[in-house]
């Protein structure tokens, strides 16, 4: 009963990343997130959507509104790409590196409250992030 | 495809980013700017991002690239007006944009540009202009 | 099976309609026990809430026992209102849920009367009424919890905000005296507060004074570094002041690299530096014999 709504947004081209940002912004605004929290979740979504497109060969995002005692937004990014060979390595990135090369997973993880990832060569990649209000 | 306009103000170039750019537009801006700097011999670039509500790692990298490429072309880059929420998020992402000069607003940014251009000239000609 | 249930709840609606006044008076009497809390709520308010509840329940019951259905929306809204008011009035979640659950006995009494001749129908009717009222009772609790979460969240925000004042020392120079431990939540609020002030006051220099921060370890240093970096990205410089000798030692021992962040031992040193960077200087006024400042009007000699 906590899930209020669920929406699927395709991520198969560059304009889709802009659409992802727009929809996540709209939903987090509607749920009453603070400006900083909105910015964080939209930015995380942008990072992960780009990963899905560029590294995963395209996929989709599920946008889920959570409205139980705690209000939040859950986003899952799915692709059937080659998978991430070393997830631990991808998550670890230096805090002060200014270039931000690579998958940006560590960064996205720091912007949200919950972060789950499963990735393999035959299943593709699935990243789920949750930001509570 | 829309392009982001680049204005010329004396020996400086001014870019105001107001739209949520998709990646291709950002790359186009990078290219346009470097071309304009080299065409006009501009000594400085001011990038106004006070309307930008989202700066992710791609845009962050674009800004860093613009600063680096401008420097190779002997121009200084100043980024002005970053919103607090954006600054907080960028830092959390791990981006500190080390090679990029920053200022609170366009006025402060122009001041910074003029100062650094004067410093260069001093170094080149050995006297205050 | 579904239609049977619907029929039963249809008869529930008619049972309520037929026995409304007895159910109402029994219900209110039922609440005259410990959970009545007449210290918190007036009789008249309870009575009107009960009457309204029965009206809405009677309206919605024909639609079945799924309280998420559209037909139940007025009732859900009403319960939301009741939960909100009771949370404000200081009721516990149990007391609030009891508001709904205590209608069971009077309702069952009415059901018993209607189905006196048929024990099996009576049992089925009572069961569906129980299911319905239980979900409504649980809904009340859930709404109550949600309301509490929201209040707690807001209070936490306010508390954090109050404990992080940003002070304007001069045109373009801010000071942020930190007192107490710097955990992750606190840093967030501190950073937001500082950065907002920087924009509002157009300040190029912010002095973060950590005299009141008891320990500076790697975590705290990282938090400070985040704040400084964010300010720099916006175009403002930070000076960290109040660095005690012990802290300086800790920083070196832990190998914390504060990069090019300027640090000063005292707030006043930091202020001097800030003024210098802003191109400002303080001038001592020269007093002449009569105690007037140099350059002041000398007409009345």
Give an account of the 3D structure.
The complex is a heterotrimer of chains A (133), B (129) and C (301). The longest helix of chain A is centred in the middle third of the chain and has 20 residues, at 35-54. In chain A, strand 2 (59-67) and strand 3 (71-79) form a beta hairpin. Helices cover 37% and strands 32% of the residues of chain A. A five-stranded antiparallel beta sheet of chain A has the order 1-2-3-5-4, with helices on one face. Chain A is built from four helices and five strands. The relative contact order of chain A is 0.21. In chain A, helix 1 packs antiparallel against helix 2 (35-54) and helix 2 (35-54) packs antiparallel against helix 4 (105-111). Chain A starts with a strand and ends with a strand. Chain A is an alpha+beta fold and 133 residues long. Residues 94-101 of chain A have low confidence and may be disordered. Chain B starts with 5 loop residues before the first strand and ends with a helix. In chain B, helix 1 runs parallel beside helix 2 (57-72). By secondary structure, chain B is an alpha/beta fold. In chain B, strands 1-2-3-4-5 form a five-stranded mixed beta sheet, with helices on both faces. Chain B has helices at residues 23-40, 57-72, 84-93, 106-125; strands spanning 6-9, 12-16, 44-48, 76-80, 101-103. Chain B has a single domain (6-125), classed as STAS domain (Transcription Regulator spoIIAA, 2-Layer Sandwich). In chain B, strand 3, helix 2 and strand 4 (76-80) form a beta-alpha-beta unit. The model of chain B has no long low-confidence stretch (mean pLDDT 91). By secondary structure, chain C is an alpha/beta fold. Chain C has two domains: 2-153, Globin-like (Orthogonal Bundle); 167-277, Transcription Regulator spoIIAA (2-Layer Sandwich), CATH 3.30.750. In chain C, 61% of the residues lie in helices and 9% in strands. Chain C has helices spanning 2-30, 43-60, 73-89, 93-101, 104-114, 119-162, 184-201, 218-234, 245-253, 267-277; strands at 167-170, 173-179, 205-212, 237-241, 262-264. Chain C starts with a helix and ends in a 24-residue tail after the last helix. The relative contact order of chain C is 0.08. The model of chain C is unreliable at 1-5 (pLDDT under 50). Chains in contact: A-B, A-C, B-C.
